[in-house]
Protein backbone atom coordinates (compact mmCIF):
# COMPACT_ATOMS: atom_id res chain seq x y z
CA UNK A 1 0.00 0.00 0.00
CA UNK A 2 2.79 2.38 0.91
CA UNK A 3 4.68 1.62 -2.31
CA UNK A 4 1.54 2.24 -4.39
CA UNK A 5 1.13 5.61 -2.70
CA UNK A 6 4.75 6.45 -3.53
CA UNK A 7 4.27 5.46 -7.18
CA UNK A 8 1.11 7.58 -7.36
CA UNK A 9 2.98 10.52 -5.82
CA UNK A 10 5.80 10.19 -8.36
CA UNK A 11 3.30 10.05 -11.22
CA UNK A 12 1.60 13.24 -10.02
CA UNK A 13 4.96 14.95 -9.50
CA UNK A 14 6.00 14.04 -13.04
CA UNK A 15 2.79 15.52 -14.47
CA UNK A 16 3.03 18.68 -12.35
CA UNK A 17 6.75 19.32 -12.87
CA UNK A 18 6.70 18.95 -16.65
CA UNK A 19 3.41 20.87 -16.86
CA UNK A 20 5.01 23.82 -15.04
CA UNK A 21 8.26 23.37 -16.94
CA UNK A 22 6.53 23.59 -20.31
CA UNK A 23 4.76 26.80 -19.29
CA UNK A 24 7.78 28.36 -17.57
CA UNK A 25 10.28 27.40 -20.29
CA UNK A 26 12.26 24.71 -18.55
CA UNK A 27 13.42 23.55 -15.15
CA UNK A 28 11.39 20.36 -14.56
CA UNK A 29 14.34 18.25 -13.44
CA UNK A 30 15.70 21.00 -11.21
CA UNK A 31 12.30 21.58 -9.64
CA UNK A 32 12.07 17.88 -8.78
CA UNK A 33 15.50 17.63 -7.13
CA UNK A 34 14.43 18.75 -3.62
CA UNK A 35 11.11 16.89 -3.80
CA UNK A 36 12.76 13.61 -4.76
CA UNK A 37 15.40 14.23 -2.11
CA UNK A 38 12.72 14.37 0.56
CA UNK A 39 10.87 11.32 -0.78
CA UNK A 40 13.72 8.99 -1.78
CA UNK A 41 16.90 10.38 -0.24
CA UNK A 42 19.57 12.61 -1.76
CA UNK A 43 21.59 9.87 -3.46
CA UNK A 44 18.52 8.49 -5.28
CA UNK A 45 17.77 11.84 -6.96
CA UNK A 46 20.22 11.72 -9.87
CA UNK A 47 19.52 8.11 -10.97
CA UNK A 48 15.74 8.51 -10.81
CA UNK A 49 15.82 11.81 -12.69
CA UNK A 50 18.06 10.32 -15.39
CA UNK A 51 15.55 7.56 -16.09
CA UNK A 52 12.66 10.06 -16.15
CA UNK A 53 14.50 12.43 -18.51
CA UNK A 54 15.41 9.50 -20.76
CA UNK A 55 11.67 8.82 -21.11
CA UNK A 56 10.86 12.48 -21.82
CA UNK A 57 13.44 13.35 -24.53
CA UNK A 58 12.76 11.08 -27.56
CA UNK A 59 9.60 12.91 -28.63
CA UNK A 60 11.41 16.25 -28.86
CA UNK A 61 14.22 14.72 -30.91
CA UNK A 62 11.77 13.15 -33.32
CA UNK A 63 9.76 16.34 -33.76
CA UNK A 64 12.82 18.50 -34.49
CA UNK A 65 15.15 15.89 -36.01
CA UNK A 66 15.64 17.91 -39.20
CA UNK A 67 17.01 20.87 -37.22
CA UNK A 68 19.83 19.01 -35.44
CA UNK A 69 23.24 20.68 -35.65
CA UNK A 70 25.43 17.62 -36.15
CA UNK A 71 28.74 19.47 -35.77
CA UNK A 72 27.81 20.79 -32.32
CA UNK A 73 26.35 17.39 -31.40
CA UNK A 74 29.63 15.60 -32.15
CA UNK A 75 31.72 17.89 -29.92
CA UNK A 76 29.07 18.22 -27.24
CA UNK A 77 28.41 14.49 -27.00
CA UNK A 78 32.11 13.62 -26.78
CA UNK A 79 32.43 15.78 -23.66
CA UNK A 80 29.01 14.90 -22.27
CA UNK A 81 29.51 11.15 -22.34
CA UNK A 82 32.79 11.41 -20.44
CA UNK A 83 31.38 13.94 -17.98
CA UNK A 84 28.27 11.86 -17.34
CA UNK A 85 30.37 8.76 -16.60
CA UNK A 86 32.69 10.51 -14.15
CA UNK A 87 29.83 12.44 -12.53
CA UNK A 88 27.95 9.20 -11.91
CA UNK A 89 31.11 7.64 -10.48
CA UNK A 90 31.61 10.64 -8.17
CA UNK A 91 28.04 10.29 -6.86
CA UNK A 92 28.78 6.80 -5.56
CA UNK A 93 31.91 7.98 -3.74
CA UNK A 94 30.54 10.79 -1.61
CA UNK A 95 28.42 10.50 1.50
CA UNK A 96 24.69 11.26 1.69
CA UNK A 97 25.40 14.41 3.74
CA UNK A 98 27.85 15.75 1.17
CA UNK A 99 25.31 14.96 -1.53
CA UNK A 100 22.82 17.21 0.28
CA UNK A 101 25.42 20.01 0.41
CA UNK A 102 26.27 19.69 -3.29
CA UNK A 103 22.61 19.63 -4.33
CA UNK A 104 21.81 22.57 -2.06
CA UNK A 105 24.60 24.67 -3.56
CA UNK A 106 23.49 23.73 -7.06
CA UNK A 107 19.88 24.73 -6.39
CA UNK A 108 20.94 28.07 -4.89
CA UNK A 109 23.05 28.74 -7.99
CA UNK A 110 20.08 28.02 -10.25
CA UNK A 111 18.77 31.59 -10.11
CA UNK A 112 22.11 32.87 -11.41
CA UNK A 113 22.18 30.08 -14.00
CA UNK A 114 18.72 31.09 -15.19
CA UNK A 115 19.74 34.72 -15.65
CA UNK A 116 22.97 33.66 -17.33
CA UNK A 117 21.10 31.22 -19.54
CA UNK A 118 18.89 33.93 -21.04
CA UNK A 119 21.85 35.96 -22.30
CA UNK A 120 24.33 35.49 -25.08
CA UNK A 121 28.02 35.52 -24.36
CA UNK A 122 30.20 38.41 -25.53
CA UNK A 123 32.52 36.24 -27.61
CA UNK A 124 32.01 33.87 -30.50
CA UNK A 125 32.21 30.24 -29.42
CA UNK A 126 33.90 27.72 -31.76
CA UNK A 127 32.36 24.28 -32.15
CA UNK A 128 35.34 22.58 -30.48
CA UNK A 129 34.61 24.51 -27.24
CA UNK A 130 31.58 22.28 -26.71
CA UNK A 131 33.91 19.43 -25.73
CA UNK A 132 34.84 20.98 -22.32
CA UNK A 133 31.41 22.62 -22.01
CA UNK A 134 29.74 19.23 -22.48
CA UNK A 135 32.08 17.58 -20.00
CA UNK A 136 31.45 20.19 -17.28
CA UNK A 137 27.67 20.28 -17.58
CA UNK A 138 27.37 16.49 -17.81
CA UNK A 139 29.62 15.98 -14.78
CA UNK A 140 27.34 18.20 -12.68
CA UNK A 141 24.31 16.43 -14.11
CA UNK A 142 25.75 13.06 -13.17
CA UNK A 143 26.35 14.25 -9.63
CA UNK A 144 23.09 16.08 -8.86
CA UNK A 145 20.68 14.97 -11.59
CA UNK A 146 20.30 18.24 -13.55
CA UNK A 147 22.32 21.20 -14.83
CA UNK A 148 19.71 23.92 -15.21
CA UNK A 149 19.84 26.30 -18.21
CA UNK A 150 23.62 26.79 -18.00
CA UNK A 151 24.15 25.25 -21.46
CA UNK A 152 21.84 27.76 -23.18
CA UNK A 153 24.19 30.78 -23.53
CA UNK A 154 26.85 28.65 -25.19
CA UNK A 155 24.38 27.32 -27.76
CA UNK A 156 22.92 30.79 -28.32
CA UNK A 157 26.36 32.27 -28.83
CA UNK A 158 27.17 29.62 -31.42
CA UNK A 159 24.07 30.73 -33.32
CA UNK A 160 21.49 28.03 -32.53
CA UNK A 161 17.89 29.22 -32.20
CA UNK A 162 14.44 27.79 -31.57
CA UNK A 163 14.05 24.31 -33.07
CA UNK A 164 17.78 23.81 -33.65
CA UNK A 165 18.56 24.63 -30.03
CA UNK A 166 15.80 22.36 -28.69
CA UNK A 167 16.77 19.47 -30.98
CA UNK A 168 20.51 19.70 -30.27
CA UNK A 169 19.99 19.89 -26.49
CA UNK A 170 17.53 17.00 -26.58
CA UNK A 171 19.88 14.76 -28.58
CA UNK A 172 22.75 15.52 -26.23
CA UNK A 173 20.54 14.95 -23.19
CA UNK A 174 19.21 11.62 -24.46
CA UNK A 175 22.64 10.03 -24.90
CA UNK A 176 23.98 11.69 -21.76
CA UNK A 177 21.12 10.26 -19.68
CA UNK A 178 21.68 6.82 -21.19
CA UNK A 179 25.38 6.99 -20.28
CA UNK A 180 24.54 8.10 -16.76
CA UNK A 181 22.06 5.26 -16.31
CA UNK A 182 24.62 2.68 -17.46
CA UNK A 183 27.24 4.21 -15.16
CA UNK A 184 24.86 4.32 -12.19
CA UNK A 185 24.13 0.64 -12.73
CA UNK A 186 27.83 -0.18 -13.06
CA UNK A 187 28.73 1.64 -9.84
CA UNK A 188 25.74 0.34 -7.89
CA UNK A 189 23.75 3.60 -7.67
CA UNK A 190 20.76 2.34 -9.70
CA UNK A 191 18.73 -0.75 -8.82
CA UNK A 192 15.41 -2.05 -10.26
CA UNK A 193 13.44 -0.22 -7.56
CA UNK A 194 14.91 3.19 -8.45
CA UNK A 195 14.61 2.41 -12.15
CA UNK A 196 10.89 1.79 -11.64
CA UNK A 197 10.52 5.10 -9.83
CA UNK A 198 12.17 6.85 -12.78
CA UNK A 199 9.89 5.17 -15.32
CA UNK A 200 6.77 6.22 -13.39
CA UNK A 201 8.11 9.77 -13.18
CA UNK A 202 8.85 9.70 -16.92
CA UNK A 203 5.32 8.54 -17.74
CA UNK A 204 4.02 11.47 -15.70
CA UNK A 205 6.29 13.83 -17.63
CA UNK A 206 4.65 12.89 -20.93
CA UNK A 207 1.23 13.58 -19.45
CA UNK A 208 2.41 16.93 -18.10
CA UNK A 209 3.64 18.08 -21.50
CA UNK A 210 0.38 17.07 -23.17
CA UNK A 211 -1.70 18.88 -20.55
CA UNK A 212 0.41 22.02 -20.78
CA UNK A 213 -0.23 22.38 -24.50
CA UNK A 214 -3.84 23.33 -23.79
CA UNK A 215 -2.96 25.87 -21.08
CA UNK A 216 0.23 27.36 -22.48
CA UNK A 217 -1.31 30.72 -23.36
CA UNK A 218 -3.54 31.09 -20.30
CA UNK A 219 -0.80 31.55 -17.71
CA UNK A 220 1.73 34.34 -17.20
CA UNK A 221 5.14 32.79 -17.88
CA UNK A 222 7.03 35.35 -15.78
CA UNK A 223 4.90 34.66 -12.72
CA UNK A 224 5.30 30.91 -12.98
CA UNK A 225 9.03 31.35 -13.46
CA UNK A 226 9.23 33.57 -10.37
CA UNK A 227 7.38 30.98 -8.26
CA UNK A 228 9.62 28.19 -9.59
CA UNK A 229 12.86 30.07 -8.89
CA UNK A 230 11.66 30.99 -5.38
CA UNK A 231 10.75 27.39 -4.57
CA UNK A 232 14.09 26.13 -5.90
CA UNK A 233 16.08 28.70 -3.91
CA UNK A 234 14.23 27.91 -0.66
CA UNK A 235 14.61 24.18 -1.20
CA UNK A 236 18.32 24.62 -1.92
CA UNK A 237 18.82 26.58 1.29
CA UNK A 238 17.04 23.86 3.29
CA UNK A 239 19.06 21.00 1.75
CA UNK A 240 22.32 22.89 2.24
CA UNK A 241 21.42 23.55 5.88
CA UNK A 242 20.47 19.91 6.42
CA UNK A 243 23.71 18.63 4.90
CA UNK A 244 25.93 21.07 6.79
CA UNK A 245 24.12 20.36 10.08
CA UNK A 246 24.75 16.64 9.69
CA UNK A 247 28.42 17.16 8.73
CA UNK A 248 29.27 19.71 11.44
CA UNK A 249 27.10 18.77 14.41
CA UNK A 250 26.01 15.15 14.07
CA UNK A 251 29.44 13.60 13.59
Task: Explain this structure.
The relative contact order is 0.23. The protein has helices at residues 2-23, 28-40, 42-56, 58-63, 70-91, 96-117, 130-144, 152-158, 162-186, 192-215, 221-249. Helix 3 crosses helix 9 and helix 6 (96-117) runs antiparallel to helix 11 (221-249). The chain is globular. Helix content is 80%, strand content 0%. The chain has 11 helices and no strands. The chain has one domain (2-249). The protein has 251 residues and is mainly α.
The share of residues in extended strands comes to under 5%
Share of helix among residues? Answer: over 70%
Mean of residue pLDDT values? 80
Q: Give the helices and strands as they follow along the chain.
A: HHHHHHHHHHH
- Assign an overall shape: globular
Tell me the quaternary state.
single chain
Features:
single chain; 251 residues; mainly alpha; 80% helix; globular
Topology (elements, then pairings):
Layout lengths: L1 H22 L4 H13 L1 H15 L1 H6 L6 H22 L4 H22 L12 H15 L7 H7 L3 H25 L5 H24 L5 H29 L2
Q: What is shown here, in short?
A:
This protein is mainly alpha-helical and 251 residues long. The protein contains 11 helices and no strands.
Amino acid sequence: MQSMLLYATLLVLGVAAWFLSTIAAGGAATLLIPLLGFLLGAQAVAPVLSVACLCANPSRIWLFRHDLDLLVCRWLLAGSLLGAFFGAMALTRISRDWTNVVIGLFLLSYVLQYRFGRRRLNWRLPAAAFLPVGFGTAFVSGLVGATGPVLNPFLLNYGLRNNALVATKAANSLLMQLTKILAYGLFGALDPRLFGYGVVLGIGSVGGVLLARRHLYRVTTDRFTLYTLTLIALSGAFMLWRGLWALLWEQ
